[in-house]
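Severity: low
Component: inverse-folding endpoint
Summary: output formatting inconsistent between runs
Steps to reproduce: submit the following structure tokens with default settings.
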């Protein structure tokens, strides 16, 4: 997929700290949308890092991870910036000025291949012309004779200009031959009229080039002598004065361009940040680069007025606190979810499908059936993985007969034995080898709001006691850090044993232990509550915790 296609794509994205359902639903639904709406491009995305359970599923079915997209605020890629090709540093000052005037630009980007090498502005050109440039400017800048011919709109009468550069000074041959002999040196360019004695004198002094002005004829004898001496003869229609004024403009722009401290933006630069930079400087146009530093075009303040909002389809969430950053600046087209309806607002009506099942991928499976679209084995395997994960292999109270029927049908399409695959997936997901407490904590963590209270609940599902205990030792000391880092009132973490359908719960925050006691009517041992039969964050954990928090608040 090209950068331009990706920029215009509709992103299908799950919540922050994505679980297996969030990732697999994004992939499966984007594939379905691509089949039923081929006129648009649908791009699966993720708002956070993958956990090991999800990595296992993706690796098993050889499906690449969705593109990481943690912020959906408008970026330069969402702006119709000017895709103006870069120019060669050998371009003459005069040609640069003509290009700017014709294209209504005041900045040209000098490139070598795809790499940005410098900038030249109309101010730089004006400064170069207003400054008194020495007669050696063309030699100092290693100007090609090609540029000289182009600048003077000259005709080459004698000599080969290809690949040759100016090595001498610019001399106006308007004086007597005796005086000219005193000022002309080997390799100079001599600008003169139609006087044969002046032309002869210039060649006798080994001038590299004579420029005959006014469109004057040059005798055959002069041309033959020039060939013998290796002297280039150019003829221009300009008079001597004009030619003398214009010839310094043949110098290449690389000699005058700014190449240090260039102010550039990338496709990923946020429009808000770019606007602030533009307001602080006087430049009009700024180069745009891709992530590899390849030059793409230029952007101005005017371009920022025509920014496009990113178009999104949300899966597995409908709460603003769980959405990617910048959601307020994006356009939501659809929401496919199985959670409670909460705080997300949209600018206009959207397609909202919310079904009380155990997994978003169950809903996506239904939509495949409704649209008569066949499911390929890898996609089926991903949706199966999501249903097994969200329903804890049908043990969660959120699981419905619809979820189980969908999972078994998908297992047949994927060609796997359901129970064996589930055991392997949960075991891989519970492996904490080499992980930090923060990584485990963020593997599946969601933030919820209730009135003024913000609480976060994370969950890990484990097939073995060894993995569960190892996770507890790492996560427990991190809870207080997470509380402050995320600016929450409460943080809780569920260590769920899939085989026994039991959760060990710990928490942090003011009176967190008391909240757990009231929510579940249990006593804690060592700051941990053992909750048999409690496996669902959505249906069993959140309602009980919120109720207990409200009761405590009412008593204060």
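Observed output (run 2 of 3):
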């Amino acid at each position: 997929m090209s950068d331009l296609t990706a920029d215009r794509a509709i992103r299908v994205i799950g919540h922050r700290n994505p679980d297996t359902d969030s990732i697999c639903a994004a992939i499966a639904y984007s594939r379905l949308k691509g089949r039923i709406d081929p006129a648009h491009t649908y791009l699966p995305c993720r708002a956070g890092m993958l956990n090991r359970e999800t990595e296992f599923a993706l690796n098993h079915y050889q499906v690449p991870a969705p593109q990481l997209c943690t912020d959906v605020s408008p970026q330069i890629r969402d702006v119709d910036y000017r895709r103006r090709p870069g120019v060669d540093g050998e371009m003459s000052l005069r040609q640069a000025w003509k290009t700017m005037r014709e294209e209504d630009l005041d900045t040209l980007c000098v490139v070598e291949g795809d790499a940005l090498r410098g900038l030249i502005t109309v101010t730089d050109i004006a400064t170069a012309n207003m400054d008194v440039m020495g007669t050696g400017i063309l030699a100092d800048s290693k100007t090609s004779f090609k540029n000289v011919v182009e600048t003077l709109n000259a005709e080459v009468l004698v000599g080969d200009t290809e690949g040759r550069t100016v090595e001498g000074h610019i001399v106006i041959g308007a004086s007597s031959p005796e005086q000219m002999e005193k000022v002309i040196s080997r390799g100079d360019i001599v600008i003169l009229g139609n006087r044969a004695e002046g032309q002869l004198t210039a060649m006798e002094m080994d001038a590299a080039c004579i420029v005959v002005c006014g469109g004057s004829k040059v005798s055959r004898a002069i041309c033959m002598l020039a060939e013998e001496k290796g002297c280039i003869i150019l003829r221009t229609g300009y008079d001597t004065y004009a030619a003398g004024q214009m010839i310094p403009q043949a110098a290449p722009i690389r000699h005058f361009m700014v190449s240090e401290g260039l102010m550039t933006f990338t496709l990923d630069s946020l429009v808000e940040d770019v606007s602030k930079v533009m307001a602080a400087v006087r430049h009009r146009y700024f180069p745009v680069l891709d992530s590899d530093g390849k030059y793409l075009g230029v952007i101005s303040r005017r371009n920022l007025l025509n920014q496009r909002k990113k178009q999104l389809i949300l899966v597995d969430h409908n709460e603003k606190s769980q959405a990617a950053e910048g959601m307020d600046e994006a356009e939501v087209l659809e929401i496919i979810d199985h959670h409670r309806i909460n705080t997300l607002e949209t600018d206009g009506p959207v397609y909202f499908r919310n079904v009380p099942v155990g997994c978003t991928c169950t809903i996506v499976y239904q939509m495949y059936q409704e649209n008569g679209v066949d499911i390929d084995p890898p996609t089926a395997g991903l949706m199966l993985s999501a249903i097994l994960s969200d329903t804890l292999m049908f043990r969660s109270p959120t699981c419905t007969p619809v979820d189980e029927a969908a999972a078994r049908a998908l297992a047949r399409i994927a060609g796997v034995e359901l129970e064996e695959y589930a055991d392997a997936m949960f075991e891989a997901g519970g492996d904490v080898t080499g992980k930090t407490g923060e990584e485990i904590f963020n593997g599946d963590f969601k933030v919820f709001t209730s009135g003024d209270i913000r609480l976060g609940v994370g969950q890990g599902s484990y097939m073995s006691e060894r993995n569960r205990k190892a996770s507890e030792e790492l996560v427990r000391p991190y809870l207080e850090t997470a509380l402050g880092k995320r600016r929450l009132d409460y943080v809780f973490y569920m260590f769920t044993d899939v085989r026994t359908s039991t959760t060990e719960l710990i928490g942090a925050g003011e009176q967190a232990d008391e909240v757990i006691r009231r929510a579940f009517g249990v006593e804690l041992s060592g700051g941990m509550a053992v909750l048999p039969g409690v496996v669902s964050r959505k249906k069993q954990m959140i309602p009980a915790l919120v109720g207990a928090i409200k009761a405590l608040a009412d008593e204060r």
